Amino acid sequence: MKSILFFVSASAVIFKLSSTSESVNGCFRGICTGKTKPPLCKSYNGPEDMPNEYLRQKIWEFKKLEEKKNHNWNLWFKKQKKDMIKDFKKKNNAWFGNKNEKWNNFLYNLEEKWLHYNPNMKEEYKSDLYDVCSNWSDNQWIEWFKTHGLNYITSDFESWFNEIISSYNKIMTCKLINWKEKKKNEWDSHPYRLYEVDRWTRWVEKLLFLDKDIYIKVSAYRQWDQRIRNEEYLWNFLIRRIKKKYIDDVNMMVKQWCKEVMTDYNKWLISFYINWIENKQWNVWLIEKKMK
Known about the structure:
The structure is a single chain. By secondary structure, the chain is mostly helical. It has one domain. It is built from 9 helices and no strands.
């Protein structure tokens, strides 16, 4: 019932403004603050009591006020957009600028790990190697490394591969959430915006069709509601745009880079396998194990 009367009231405003017969004799009061020119010294019960000139004036005032608020929003929004793109671009460039260093460090540490005795074989790979290898022949070591060792090395690479993608996505997603929630909350927490939300929420929840000022407030409410909806749309559109450019699309670039790295990894693995066997690296493992 309220919603029906709300739109009926909105129609009354339009009807009043389009009316060709203006009531300009006498004066009226009771609209909003009552401070008008000329003063309204007579109360009214419906749109027929309200001078068209005054109604146009009040709606025009609300419109100008909304234009000012829209201008303030646009200034704030442009600044946030500029700062956000700059922040994400900087973080993205920093990550990609260090990608080769990340790969080289990983490969160095991986090689060092498998050239030496690892006391955590059982914990890391559920391998009982050191329980059974004391009297192994060279062929047994070669067979173990071929069937088990290479798989363990590959699992190390895959773990790093997945972690490097996940870490980028996590960094950028956390940054996006921070921008989305923190900055928008700061804007929505401005005193005048809190006042607006409280004012119009209470106005709608009350029997708004009993409000004697409804013929003016309907227009003001609709302008406020449209402004809030527009702000939400623009903000969410910006967030989606940033997410696509710096998370979704770049995530594909990260995966593509990791695929290129995989080619280098396969070359390294073949070389490492040959050297490990030719140097009988298992002897180093056994010597280091005894020294522990």
